[in-house]
Protein backbone atom coordinates (compact mmCIF):
# COMPACT_ATOMS: atom_id res chain seq x y z
CA UNK A 1 0.00 0.00 0.00
CA UNK A 2 1.26 3.51 -0.77
CA UNK A 3 2.89 5.59 1.93
CA UNK A 4 0.85 8.66 2.84
CA UNK A 5 3.96 10.88 2.94
CA UNK A 6 5.27 12.67 -0.13
CA UNK A 7 9.07 12.63 -0.52
CA UNK A 8 9.65 13.16 -4.25
CA UNK A 9 8.98 16.08 -6.55
CA UNK A 10 5.91 15.44 -8.69
CA UNK A 11 6.84 14.28 -12.22
CA UNK A 12 4.85 15.51 -15.16
CA UNK A 13 3.25 12.32 -16.52
CA UNK A 14 2.79 11.36 -20.13
CA UNK A 15 -0.70 11.84 -21.45
CA UNK A 16 -2.76 8.68 -21.14
CA UNK A 17 -4.40 7.86 -24.43
CA UNK A 18 -7.64 5.98 -24.00
CA UNK A 19 -8.40 3.17 -26.34
CA UNK A 20 -11.62 2.26 -28.15
CA UNK A 21 -13.71 -0.19 -26.16
CA UNK A 22 -13.29 -2.97 -28.77
CA UNK A 23 -9.53 -3.13 -28.21
CA UNK A 24 -9.82 -3.07 -24.43
CA UNK A 25 -11.51 -6.48 -24.52
CA UNK A 26 -8.34 -7.98 -26.03
CA UNK A 27 -6.11 -8.88 -23.03
CA UNK A 28 -2.98 -8.62 -25.20
CA UNK A 29 -3.77 -5.02 -26.12
CA UNK A 30 -2.31 -2.44 -23.76
CA UNK A 31 -2.07 1.18 -24.91
CA UNK A 32 -0.85 -0.10 -28.28
CA UNK A 33 2.50 -1.15 -26.79
CA UNK A 34 2.33 -4.53 -28.50
CA UNK A 35 2.46 -2.82 -31.90
CA UNK A 36 5.77 -1.01 -31.22
CA UNK A 37 8.62 -2.90 -32.89
CA UNK A 38 11.55 -0.65 -31.97
CA UNK A 39 12.77 -1.59 -28.46
CA UNK A 40 14.01 1.96 -27.78
CA UNK A 41 10.62 3.41 -28.68
CA UNK A 42 8.90 0.68 -26.64
CA UNK A 43 11.07 1.48 -23.61
CA UNK A 44 10.34 5.20 -23.93
CA UNK A 45 6.55 4.74 -24.23
CA UNK A 46 6.38 2.08 -21.51
CA UNK A 47 8.37 4.37 -19.21
CA UNK A 48 6.03 7.27 -19.99
CA UNK A 49 3.06 5.08 -19.09
CA UNK A 50 4.74 3.89 -15.90
CA UNK A 51 5.34 7.47 -14.79
CA UNK A 52 1.79 8.47 -15.72
CA UNK A 53 0.25 5.62 -13.76
CA UNK A 54 2.53 6.27 -10.79
CA UNK A 55 1.55 9.96 -10.76
CA UNK A 56 -2.13 9.03 -11.05
CA UNK A 57 -1.79 6.60 -8.16
CA UNK A 58 -0.11 9.22 -5.98
CA UNK A 59 -2.86 11.75 -6.72
CA UNK A 60 -5.56 9.18 -6.01
CA UNK A 61 -3.97 8.41 -2.62
CA UNK A 62 -3.97 12.13 -1.79
CA UNK A 63 -7.65 12.36 -2.63
CA UNK A 64 -8.36 9.23 -0.58
CA UNK A 65 -6.64 10.87 2.38
CA UNK A 66 -8.62 14.09 1.99
CA UNK A 67 -11.87 12.15 1.76
CA UNK A 68 -10.98 10.09 4.83
CA UNK A 69 -10.18 13.24 6.80
CA UNK A 70 -13.44 14.85 5.72
CA UNK A 71 -15.44 11.75 6.65
CA UNK A 72 -13.77 11.61 10.08
CA UNK A 73 -14.16 15.34 10.78
CA UNK A 74 -15.73 15.67 14.25
CA UNK A 75 -17.63 18.77 13.07
CA UNK A 76 -19.71 16.61 10.71
CA UNK A 77 -22.96 15.33 12.12
CA UNK A 78 -22.54 12.20 9.99
CA UNK A 79 -18.84 11.64 10.68
CA UNK A 80 -17.50 8.12 10.49
CA UNK A 81 -15.14 6.39 12.90
CA UNK A 82 -11.78 5.24 11.55
CA UNK A 83 -12.95 1.62 11.63
CA UNK A 84 -15.84 2.39 9.27
CA UNK A 85 -13.57 4.33 6.91
CA UNK A 86 -11.08 1.46 6.97
CA UNK A 87 -13.79 -1.04 6.13
CA UNK A 88 -15.11 1.05 3.25
CA UNK A 89 -11.64 1.64 1.78
CA UNK A 90 -10.42 -1.91 2.52
CA UNK A 91 -7.65 -0.63 4.81
CA UNK A 92 -6.58 -1.64 8.28
CA UNK A 93 -7.80 0.67 11.01
CA UNK A 94 -4.21 1.79 11.72
CA UNK A 95 -3.72 2.73 8.08
CA UNK A 96 -7.05 4.60 8.10
CA UNK A 97 -5.87 6.65 11.07
CA UNK A 98 -2.64 7.51 9.21
CA UNK A 99 -4.59 8.44 6.09
CA UNK A 100 -6.96 10.63 8.13
CA UNK A 101 -3.96 12.40 9.62
CA UNK A 102 -2.36 12.78 6.19
CA UNK A 103 -5.63 14.12 4.79
CA UNK A 104 -5.90 16.64 7.61
CA UNK A 105 -2.40 17.89 6.78
CA UNK A 106 -3.35 18.20 3.11
CA UNK A 107 -6.52 20.11 4.01
CA UNK A 108 -4.51 22.51 6.18
CA UNK A 109 -2.24 23.07 3.19
CA UNK A 110 -5.18 23.69 0.81
CA UNK A 111 -5.62 20.10 -0.40
CA UNK A 112 -4.04 17.80 -2.99
CA UNK A 113 -4.77 20.09 -5.92
CA UNK A 114 -2.15 22.53 -4.65
CA UNK A 115 0.51 19.92 -3.84
Describe what you observe in this structure.
- This protein has 115 residues and is an all-alpha fold.
- The protein has helices spanning 21-24, 39-72, 82-89, 93-108.
- The longest helix has 34 residues, at 39-72.
- The radius of gyration is 18 Å and the shape is elongated.
The number of E-state strands comes to 0
Secondary structure class reads mainly alpha
- Main sheet properties: none
Shape estimate = elongated
- Low-confidence stretches at least 5 residues in length (pLDDT < 50)? 5-11
Mean pLDDT: 82
Residue share in helices?
40-55%
Write a concise synopsis of the structure shown.
With 115 residues, the chain is mainly α.
List strands and helices in order, with pairings.
Elements (H helix, E strand, L loop, with lengths): L20 H4 L14 H34 L9 H8 L3 H16 L7
Helix pairs in contact: 2-4, 3-4
Keywords:
115 residues; mainly alpha; elongated
Amino acid sequence: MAEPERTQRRLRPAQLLFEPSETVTDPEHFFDLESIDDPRELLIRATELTLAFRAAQERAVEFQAVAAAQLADPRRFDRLPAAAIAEQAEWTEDYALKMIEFGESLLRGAGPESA
